[in-house]
TrEMBL record, chains A, B:
InterPro entries: Bact_HTH_transcr_reg, Chorismate_lyase_/UTRA_dom_sf, Tscrpt_reg_HTH_GntR, UTRA, WH-like_DNA-bd_sf, WH_DNA-bd_sf. This is GntR family transcriptional regulator. It holds the Pfam family GntR. Keywords: DNA-binding, Transcription, Transcription regulation. Residues 1-69 form the HTH gntR-type domain.
Amino acid sequence: MLKYQQIAAEIEKYIEDNALQQGDKLPVLETLMAQFEVSKSTITKSLDLLEKKGVVFQVRGSGIFVRRHKRKGYISLLSNQGFKENLEDFNITSEVIELEVRKPTKEVALALNIELNEDVYYIKRVRYINGQTLCLEESFYNKSIITYLNKEIASESIFYYIREGLGLKVGFSDMYLHVDKLNEEEAKYLGLKKGEPKLYVETLFHLTNGQPFDFSKVTYNYEQSQFFIQTNSQFL
Amino acid sequence: MLKYQQIAAEIEKYIEDNALQQGDKLPVLETLMAQFEVSKSTITKSLDLLEKKGVVFQVRGSGIFVRRHKRKGYISLLSNQGFKENLEDFNITSEVIELEVRKPTKEVALALNIELNEDVYYIKRVRYINGQTLCLEESFYNKSIITYLNKEIASESIFYYIREGLGLKVGFSDMYLHVDKLNEEEAKYLGLKKGEPKLYVETLFHLTNGQPFDFSKVTYNYEQSQFFIQTNSQFL
């Protein structure tokens, strides 16, 4: 973790510990610089990161303010993709249904930008939130990048292992989502009825060098899935 | 539009015009600086903006590469909120069902951070995509910020009017989404059956100064709603 990332994490913790609310003003730059004993450029980078993450917003000439979503029980749709710390508020567990090395289908090969005779790790899991089914997940990992996986890893956070175990840098992702009706198999795994609503999300994850390494297909239990997304002005 | 935003738009157009693909490399910084006759700091800001928007990705020591989502027919969920240019690929029209000034409910007052005796513009619209129902939208605008609206404005892009007509700066938004079953009224407006799936999205839009100005509730027709979201590493 770089210095500015560390400071950003500390500022986030400060907001948390002091239960600061939406619109509360943070100390001015000079105070933050003194408090964390860092340069102006470092503190600026920390604040920019926190702004991107939706933790603060900056008003030119006016200051830095806390930005918080106010609803309990909502999962961050974007962070959830990487299974991040903020999910620790929830008790998430995984049951591995299937894990094997196989050849990709055409669709998977195209997504991962590999040949049909290369290998992928195929993993099928049911994930639970507070004891209820959250989603059915099928993931395809490019085996030449994610060189090793096993059931124990897959029953925990695969992304944590990819970052910490394999030392890879996760860069960006493309998500495609739509709403549809559950088919029989999905309904069975989620404990719902065929024809009930589902949120279906396909995601293609890339390393920072642009290589796609994971193509995942997730079917969410609509009864357990409340998501929030914070956006910044570049999207609006 | 600031210089760096203008250059960013030109680079985006260059990628479009030359039909560059995912992973294609852009010219090096020096070439871009010369081509657009701008300083290094301007071109850097332009590229940072394009990276945030998901148009390019930068690999340290290696270059700037094109980032594109590959699927046709998907709407950008984040841009869609602001009803942006990339929706021009689709033919979107609106039918205004209701437009009036009223007092907010407790829920709306809380969201917009106003008192119960203040005024909001209430707008109910059905939006169509390529002639099919896309969504049913109910929006509540803080009238002390959005001082004037009428049916003609509401049948076009309200956000375009807010930016260009009222000169306001849209800053950030919080979206809450879940999947559920259509109730009778929603089904009627969308031309679907009660109990069929829906994607339901509540969004609270803020100005750059942090003031919430629009609280909207949108129910999407699941048959017409295919969304994509591009994320960057800060979320992963």
